[in-house]
Amino acid sequence: MTALQSKLEETNTSLGKYKTDDDIEKLRNENDQKFSSIFKKYLKELEIINESMNKEHKYTTLYKSSIFPCQGVELLKTVLAHNFAFNQIITNTNYVQRFPFLIDAIFKEDIDDGNKPLILNFVNKNKPIDTQLIVSIAYKDDENNAIISNYNKNNFNNKAKLISIGDGINKKVFLQNYNNQHDDLLQDTVKIMEYI
Questions:
Q1: Does 68 fall in a domain?
Q2: Rounded to the nearest 5 degrees, what angle is found at the Cα of 173, between the Cα atoms of 194 and 160?
Q3: DSSP 33-61
Q4: CATH number for the domain that contains residue 156
């Protein structure tokens, strides 16, 4: 056997460890089915009744869905269900590194009072148990910190850790001039970032 044939055989053996296109397609189809099942379950929990989404598989797949045939609160709840379904797939994949699950501006749309508890109860029921969940909620001018405490009490069994930025009064509080408050936290953060 020549050196070239030996190298070719070694290369073919190394390549044999990787999945073929057919293997990848099969794995994607399996993940699509799992995802679709979870996604549809979450859509039902969030009371999304959309004929297009039920009829066309492209809206409920993991790899092909990019837009949804809905708008307003229905779109917000659909995206929420999609993100939670995707997070569930990640949870069930043992070789994936888990990071905190962040949901930003959960009530950014004008949401009626009936949908708010539905959404918050969904989040609480389906929150990940293997990583931290961070949810940001902006409240309206006619609301105050009490509403956040009520969400915690009524929807999260008083188990959520609350952080109120700007005390519900100041806007763009992260963009204010630094006043040396909590300097120890700032220095600790800078030290951590230096090691990254």
A1: yes
A2: 80
A3: HHHHHHHHHHHHHTT---HHHHH-GGGS-
A4: 3.40.50
Express each pLDDT in 72-113 by its tens digit.
889 999 999 999 999 999 988 888 888 899 998 888 767 887
Task: Provide the domain limits for residue 97.
Answer: 23-169
- Of residues 122 and 137, the one with the higher pLDDT is 122
**Which is nearest to 117 in space by CA: 80, 156, 87?**
156
- Between the two ends of the chain, the Cα-to-Cα distance in Å is 49
21-45 vs 72-91: helix crossing angle, rounded to 10 = 130
The model's pTM is: 0.76
For residue 9 the two structure tokens come to 């055989």
Query: Which tokens is 195 given?
Result: 């090691």
Distance CA 123, CA 90 (A): 17
Predicted confidence (pLDDT) per residue in 140-160, tens digit: 777 777 888 888 899 999 988
To which residue do tokens 């990940």 refer? Answer: 128
